[in-house]
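Session log. Operator J.P. requested a structure for one protein chain; no other inputs attached. Running the standard single-chain path with C-alpha cell output.
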Amino acid sequence: MFELSFGEILVVVLVGLVVLGPEELPVVARSVRRMWRSLHQTTHDIQQQVMQIIDDPEMEEPLKPVSLIRGDDGTYYEAYDVSELAHYRTPPSTHDTTKESPHE
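Structure written below.
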C-alpha cells in the first residue's frame, strides 16, 4: 500500500526518536503496528463479505418474469412473482397467533 524506501523509514524513525524519545518510541511503534494490523484485518473482512454478496447466485436475478399482463393502453408488461422476496422484507412476527386469547 505505502511504498517507503529504507531512507524514508530511517527519517521517520529518527524524527520519532527526537520527538518522542527513546523510551516512548517502542511503545508508540507497537501501538501503530497493532492499529495497522487491525485496519488491515477489517478491510480484508469487508472485502470478503462484499465478494460473498457479489458471488451470491440469488443476487444475480432476484425476480424472474412469470407472465405478461396487458395494460389499459394495450402495452404488454412483464409480471413478477414477488412472493419469493417476502422473507427479505417482512419482519418476523412477535405476535403468536396460535395461543388463545385470555378473554375467550
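Operator note: The chain has a mean pLDDT of 76.
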